[in-house]
Model the fold of this input.
Amino acid sequence: MSRPADDQQLAERARRGDAAAFEELVRRHQPIAFRTALVLTGSPADAEDAAQDGFVKAWRALPRFRSGAPFRPWLLAIVANEARTRRRAAGRREGWTARAAVAAETEPAPDGPLATVLVRERAAELAGALSALGERDRTVLALRYVLDLPEREIAAVLGCRPGTVKSRLSRALDRLREEVAA
Amino acid sequence: MIEQELRALGAALEWPQTPDLVPAVRARMAPAPPARRRWRWRPHGPLALAAAVLLVLVVATALVPPARSAVLRVLGLTGSARIVQAPRAPDVSRGPLDLGRPIALAEARRRAPFLRLPAALGAPAQARWSDRLAGGAVTLRWTDGDALTEFQGRGIPFLEKFASQPTRVRRIRVGTAPGYFLDGAPHEVLVMDRNGIPIQGTRALVRGNVLLWDAGPIAYRLETRRGLRHALAVATSVRTS
Done:
């Protein structure tokens, strides 16, 4: 069996017009694209639209994609851009922190009921502190610790330099600690 | 460390299922015809139901490109599902229908007081609860692959089933209750919300055979690897009184 092609090989083939190669890239990256868009829009329907439009725009923009560059940060930057244009100011958005509050209620602990209660209390406290933060802080924390994106990809999503990601993360963590302690 | 706690909380998050974007992206990759934006509309008011029915037809036809020019033929209708003819074979790369999260049987009974167990199958191995299906549905699973979903019917089907040529659709009766049995080949299914509007990203593949029937206000869906005889034996053993 041959090894599956890596992103760069697929992107190179897609750049030359190989639609099947691009479909493989869509299949491979649709979960992270959808979740990134979900963190940014707060709505599954908007996230699906943003991810879909992002992939279509990426396909059309492939001739401008720099050969040999990593594909995922480039894709996530396009998807994030789509997500941001979809975010409507009006209306209540169920952000990822609402999901965090639900997760806090169900988070299991291995050491029996008392430990479970303690873990859940702590998780609920954390979820509450998150919801008290500003959206900029919540977003950067979600991209780093929930989606587990490396700093380079967070920079692509937020449209800033990796150094800026580091300082934004550090400030967001400080504010989260203050909220938890409050 | 607060970072580790954040990671733990993140790992416990329940994400909505990632929709399969490949077919939609593929359809829009062709240079011609130009990409059309998908439209979404959430109607309110007295026209909502009529609009929803129309939208289901529009979306259902849009989902199967070869049928765009023709409205899909309805093969069957129960309180829970509309079965339409699909002009092409199902996409077998799709995931299974999301039947919700596991819960204890006692909790399932509390949430769905109408819940009945089929005597023919004995105690279920697992119960699942989904808020998404019909506004609240319990699914019981057994180790041999049988799964029975129960919910209160509400007059508007919440599942759209796409039966392609190899799938046999038979009209049957469970006691006196009307129903349908689908077998012979996998089929695709789409979940609709309480207004009858398809929920994006819910299109799924059903590999097993399915028996659908209504008993009064309760609608049932049995999925099984076995045939009609077994399905009927299970269905008739559900005490609906």
About this structure: The mean pLDDT of chain B is 77. The longest strand of chain B covers residues 168-174. The helical segments of chain B are 2-11, 22-29, 48-63, 105-111, 228-236.
